[in-house]
Write a structure and sequence with these properties.
Length: about 450
Amino acid sequence: MSVEHTVETTPAPTHDPCNGTPAVPRDHVVGYVLKMYPRFSETFIVSEILAREAAGEQIVIFSLRPSTDARFHPELARVKAPVIQVPRSSTSSKLWAQLALAAASPALAPGLQRSLPELLAAGHDDAQQAVGLAHAAHQAGVTHLHAHFASIATTVARLAGRISGLPYSFTAHAKDIFHEDVDQHELQAKLAEAHHAITISGYNLDDLRTRFPAAAQRLHLVRNGLELSRFPFTPNLGTQPAPDPSLESPPRPARLLGIGRLVEKKGFHLLIEAVARLRDEGLDVQADIAGDGPLANHLQQQIDDAGLRSSVRLLGPCTQQEVAELLGSHDVFVAPFVIGADGNADGLPTVLLEAMARGIRCVAAEVTAVGEVVRPGETGWLVPAGDVTALTAAVAEAITTDPGHLRMLEAGRTLIEQNFDSAAQSRRLQALVSDPASPAAQNRLAAVQEPV
């Protein structure tokens, strides 16, 4: 991974059409527009970029904010794309300097003139960075802009596309379309003007097409992908047998695992409550919660108040390697999602897909698209969001001995292989950039394929 302010591009390789992958045009350069890169919690973006690079695409990354994370995943070292920090300043003089630079460019001046009304209506930061992005993308030889999240990154990519004449696309996830602060009129305009738009689940696809039937004509379903080789299927069938007083050494506790940002929508307060209830019922369980966020102190206080300091641990942020080790050493993955008071809800968290790929029993709450992968009695345990009684009962069932558990884990792995392979994801993304109307770019069914 290199960081610089200008880049020289080289021709991207082409693929053999005999292998079913479209040839990559030699002048095809995709500019990824991200609010912040790298970002510790956005592993799915790194996986996507790696898959596209492996497929022969040339990528340039534009970051609108400097990274504030102190830790990084080792997978970042495999990304070949240069990273360009787009200028951002609180002073108006920098904005005028950016405008003057663009106005002096024969390639950008016409688009800048056409875009002035929108730039003047935009916020200072967005306007300045849109002009800076247009100039940097032109220098880097970018042919297409793609943003992740339908918020700041797409706002800037859309304006930069107008200035530079470049097509733009974006991927919509969860908070960027469900949060109460989302500007519905602006989201509609982004969908309508994009070369194409992407969302990550059938739930999102149906929701956006219902809300914006005319604007969502170029909206496509492309699920987040996993590098499956990094998540070998190693089912853990550790169980919680009934206590045997004749044993000198009691069986080890059942180990529960939660992973995610410590924010309201993850519902970790319900996991802590479930542990308290399970222990009251005489079940020996322990829980580890990996992640960081604004609710860390609040959750620790809940743990202390419940007398669970020896039973529930907050591990802090973990790297991908550490997450893999946790998935391999725990018995049940618990994802007690809720819908936040502000309407924010998870889409389809990557770590849930990773857990299913690895072969750990999964208990999850049903919000948005979670039910597309966690199917009761087939691939895991699905409970109503916010129902701690149902959550507790599901975990109690998941930690017990049952020969049917292996069948569920195998079905979960098959479902992930069929629907969430990053190599297949990269082929769809490449086809959409080349020609959204081509057969290779068309949506698969919104419903996740049944394991066979």
